[in-house]
Amino acid sequence: QVQLVESGGGSVQAGGSLRLSCAASGRTFSRNVMGWFRQAPGKEREFVAGIIISASGTSTVYAESVKSRFTISRDNAKNTVYLQMNSLKSEDTAVYYCAARIKITGTPVARAGDYDYWGQGTQVTVSS
Q1: 126 pairs with which residues across the strands?
Q2: What single-letter DSSP state applies at residue 31?
Q3: Are strands 57-62 and 122-127 parallel, antiparallel or unpaired?
């Protein structure tokens, strides 16, 4: 079992920055996929960013809406994944969820249904 705990959410004005953290505990895996998703009120959960650690190295994937503004990274020594969010917009307002999955290949990183573990979420509110 893997436990994921997000932190770092809050309120910020448009154009500002926040850094979210996701600490993993329990049974962790050296090779896996970690992702960030978000869900705004009245909308479906959507993919934000993912980071893949495989035998061939590390790679990242981003939703088009956050490319060049958000950066996903991980600190394996701390079992923590980060989401640095810059140039925030009001449309970034949502509950942000961290997720983990063991399967590395064969399914899109953006597919929420393929993730095995989820955090409880952290609220991000961007005011214009």
Answers
A1: 12
A2: S
A3: unpaired
C-alpha span between 126 and 91 (Å, rounded): 8
Q: How far apart are CA 103 and CA 41, in angstroms?
A: 30
Give me the torsion for CA of 77, 32, 23, 7, rounded to 10°.
130
How far is CA 40 from each of CA 26, 44, 53, 96, rounded to the nearest angstrom?
29, 7, 28, 9
From CA 80, how far away is CA 118, in angstroms rounded? 14
> For 18-28, b where at least 16 C-beta lie within 10 A, e where not — what string?
bebbbbbeeee
- Identify each DSSP E strand in 1-128 by its residue range: 2-7, 10-13, 18-26, 33-39, 46-54, 57-62, 70-75, 80-85, 94-101, 117-118, 122-127
Q: Is the pLDDT of residue 58 over 80?
A: yes
In tens, the pLDDT along 72-104 reads: 999 988 999 999 999 999 999 999 999 999 888
CA distances, 35 to each of 13, 16, 71, 105 (Å): 25, 22, 12, 14
Provide the pairing of β-strand 94-101 with 122-127. antiparallel
Phi/psi at 76 (5° precision)? -65, -30
